[in-house]
Design brief:
This protein is of the alpha/beta class. Among the domains are: 1-42 and 489-516, no CATH class; 523-755, Rossmann fold. The protein is built from 21 helices and 21 strands. An 8-stranded mixed beta sheet has the order 14-21-20-15-19-16-18-17, with helices on both faces. Strands 3-2-10-5-6-7 form a 6-stranded antiparallel beta sheet. A 4-stranded antiparallel beta sheet has the order 11-12-1-13, with helices on one face. Helix 9 (356-376) runs antiparallel to helix 10. The chain is elongated.
């Protein structure tokens, strides 16, 4: 058969805890009170947000060519940057450190006016704690300065680390006061916001700049606003909106200043290199012009070209090609000189060669230099990342040199070819005077120097524009603002958690109580302890009369005995099943009370019932039923001449019920119960009565009951709510497993109606 899944009975769970309604009510009131106090004390935390637009830099601009020449390309004055890289910079520890120092965020001042009224002073605290900035740079712990001032201006100062450790203490001092701590000297002083004659109770939380910057990394976040957008969402969580706005504004300003400084430093280095080259080229240009002037004066020349107009026309193209190639060769040579100079080891290569191999290597080299400049601002020279980047730069510099050498070799080949063409043209000019050829060479040299000089002047102006530019790197789209609704505390969530806690706490306490209790209180708890059938429960008897089951009574307790009687009948399916043995674990569990009323319940069916008192060590039936105490069962067992009719006493309140009281306590009860007269007694009882209910001794105290189990058809084990130990229930299980008790059904006595889920109700709900 398919195993059925267990079903949770929620109604039973509710019934189980219903009688503890007062505990749930107290828990609910306490949790709501705690929630209200929490909302009163907890300062609301707001999200302060700003949107910053960062355009990736692309400073590669097409260079202007002089005299229609396409020899030279633009100088790369900067490298590109991705938004993800700028997010790293904006969220860097270095910027947070600068912000903490500037805004003095490592000191917070809370004024306690009452238990619920606490003021967070930001830039308006009447009391201030100060120390040299170097102390805050090295301070690695947090301290609390508790300052209480009186109306006459005296102050009590207590410095604590954590909740219990006191570092320094001063009483009745006048501010400003110097406080000596194990971490350094601090000064507690008044500010412009201090009002004389007013009492203050202020707690200043002081920590180092580094720990505070690290703590802010958890609340201040820089992240990409959305994919494919160059916008950064910069936000922080703060209890003071103005402080949050100042924090974001400061971070943005420091970020832009850092970017501007990087750009200015790059432009300054480029300007220095250009000025040095301009000075050298200018001297060469002036020398070429002076040489031409001297040559013309010495040879009385005005315009030599007019003398060889036709030949010059053929040679113009060859000369122009040589000029272009020579200019390109000089530019590439300057790049090689720049790279070879140790002073430019970590500087940008300011020119791009007109060569695919050299240009790609230069671009990659400049990109690595840009990364090193960014890392240099926040890392030391022995940083592993810095060393790894320096190694990459050295390797890339070798690639640049190789590419430049290849370009130079190619240009030399091209110059050789152009020279050959020019030489061939010169062969046709043998008739032209040597002076004309020398003049043309001088002009050619002057043209090369002039082209280079013009190019450098242009780049100097472009670099000056870059240096003068003050456009911020990050453009603020949304100025920092605080959300209107706080992030926390979430009032609905707080009250929901309070409600859940109010329900969980009593359940937890009751579970702990149940875990450590050794007794049980309800039929449900008894059923959870044993695999034996629980055939019913009996409410607490609120009447003086022990015999509650009588004809005409419709009390709830009577109905419960009828319920037990019916279950016992189901346990006796055969006509020969007549003997019901009633026992308990220990004395005082209501065994005799259950036996008497169970017998009466059977008698109400019109049966002849015998209630036999076999607890002969401590007989109680005579007292309960107000019958004579002798002769009883012990007389029958010990005297051969005693008959059954001599000891059977009819109970007037219940027709059909005869009671056989225990009688006089014998000196040898165990031997009597094991004798043949016991067998004769039960034989006569079976022959005379329809049902025999036997009130026997407790099983945990004496062994008398086990002498009678051979006569029993059904065994009823009586337990008592809040009295019988759980171990006694396990003893019933063990005795059944050992075969010493048979056909056992358990009954729990003396329960409270609220503990039994309403079982037994329906025909009567009172015992009156």
């Amino acid at each position: 058969m398919e195993k059925k899944e267990p079903v949770i009975d929620f109604s039973a769970i509710v019934q189980r805890y219903r009688r503890y309604w007062w505990l749930f009510l107290l828990s609910l009131l306490a949790c709501i009170a705690v929630a209200v106090m929490y909302l009163k004390v907890k300062k609301p935390v707001f999200l302060v947000q700003s949107i910053v637009l960062v355009d990736p830099e692309d400073n590669a601009k097409p260079g202007a060519s002089s005299m229609g020449s396409s020899l030279l390309k633009s100088m790369a004055l900067g490298g590109g940057s991705r938004v993800e890289d700028e997010i790293v910079v904006m969220g860097s520890h270095h910027l947070r450190m600068l912000m903490v120092k500037e805004l003095r965020l490592n000191r917070t001042y809370i004024e306690r006016k009452s238990f619920f009224d606490r003021v967070d002073h930001y830039n308006d605290s009447p009391i201030e704690v100060d120390a040299p900035e170097t102390l805050f740079d090295t301070l690695s712990t947090s301290m609390q300065f508790k300052v209480k001032t009186t109306a006459d201006g005296k102050a009590d100062i207590k410095v604590k680390k954590g909740r219990f450790k006191t570092l320094a203490e001063a009483s009745g001092v006048t501010l400003p006061a110097t406080v000596k701590t194990p971490y350094g000297m601090f000064q507690v002083k008044r500010t412009a916001y201090y009002k004389p004659g007013k009492e203050y109770n202020i707690t200043a939380a002081v920590t180092g700049n580094i720990p505070k910057a690290e703590a802010l990394s958890h609340v201040m976040v820089a992240e990409l606003l959305r994919k494919k957008a160059n916008a950064i969402d910069l936000n922080t969580r703060e209890t003071n909106i103005q402080r949050g706005r100042d924090m974001l504004n400061t971070i943005i300003r420091l970020y832009n200043e850092r970017g501007q400084n990087e750009k200015d430093q790059q432009a300054i280095n480029t300007a220095k290199f250009i000025d040095d080259r301009l000075e050298l080229v200018y001297r060469n240009l002036m020398g070429s012009e002076a040489e031409i002037e001297a040559y013309k004066r010495s040879h009385n020349l005005v315009d030599p070209e007019l003398q060889a107009k036709s030949v010059i026309g053929r040679q113009d193209m060859a000369d122009q090609a040589i000029i272009n190639l020579e200019a390109r060769y000089r530019i590439v040579s300057m790049i090689k000189d720049f790279v070879a100079d140790p002073a430019n080891k970590h500087s940008f290569i300011p020119f791009s060669a007109d060569s695919t191999a050299a240009t790609s290597a230069i671009t990659a080299y400049n990109s690595l230099i840009m990364q090193r400049m960014k890392l240099e601002n926040s890392a030391l020279s022995d940083n592993p990342s810095m060393q790894r980047l320096d190694n990459q730069i050295e390797a890339m510099r070798a690639n640049v040199v190789s590419g430049v050498d290849n370009t130079l070799r190619a240009l030399r080949v091209q110059l050789a070819k152009a020279g050959t063409v020019s030489g061939n043209a010169a062969g046709t000019m043998r008739s032209i005077p040597t002076t004309e050829r020398q003049t043309r060479a001088l002009y050619r040299q002057q043209g090369i120097q002039n082209e280079i000089y013009t190019f450098l002047l242009q780049k100097r102006e472009e670099n000056a524009l870059v240096l003068a530019a003050t456009t911020p790197k990050g453009k603020v789209v949304d100025q920092p603002y605080g959300k209107s609704e706080p992030l926390s505390p979430n009032k609905p969530l707080v009250f929901l958690l309070a409600l859940l806690a109010a329900m969980a706490i009593p359940v937890f306490l009751l579970a702990i109580k149940n875990l450590f209790t050794t007794r049980f209180a309800s039929q449900e708890q008894l059923e959870a302890l044993t695999a034996m059938p629980v055939i019913g429960h009996i409410h607490h008897n609120r009447h003086d009369d022990q015999l509650v089951v009588q004809d005409g009574r419709n009390w709830s307790i009577v109905e419960l005995f009828r319920y037990v009687r019916n279950n016992v009948q189901f346990m006796m399916p055969e006509p020969t099943d007549k003997v019901v043995l009633v026992t308990s674990s220990v004395s005082g569990e209501g065994k005799s009370f259950v036996s008497l009323n169970l017998a009466a319940a059977f008698a109400l069916l019109g049966k002849r019932v015998a209630l036999v008192g076999m607890d002969i060590r401590k007989p109680t039936l005579a007292q309960m039923t107000h019958l004579r105490e002798a002769p009883g069962v012990t007389a029958f067992l010990s005297q051969q001449g005693t008959a059954l009719d001599d000891i059977a006493q009819p109970l007037q309140q219940v027709p059909g019920l005869d009671v056989l009281v225990g009688g006089t306590v014998p000196p040898n009860p165990s031997e009597l119960l094991l004798g043949k007269r016991t067998e004769q007694l039960f034989d006569q009882l079976r022959h005379t009565y329809d049902v025999i209910v036997v009130d026997s001794a407790p099983i945990a105290m004496v062994s008398d009951t086990f002498s009678l189990t051979r006569f029993a058809d059904v065994t009823v084990g009586v337990t008592r709510a809040n009295r019988t130990r759980r171990t006694m229930v396990k003893q019933f299980d063990r005795l059944v497993a050992e075969g010493r008790l048979k056909n056992l059904g358990l009954v729990i006595n003396d329960t409270k109606p609220s503990q039994d889920n309403g079982y037994g109700y329906g025909y009567g709900d009172t015992d009156e």
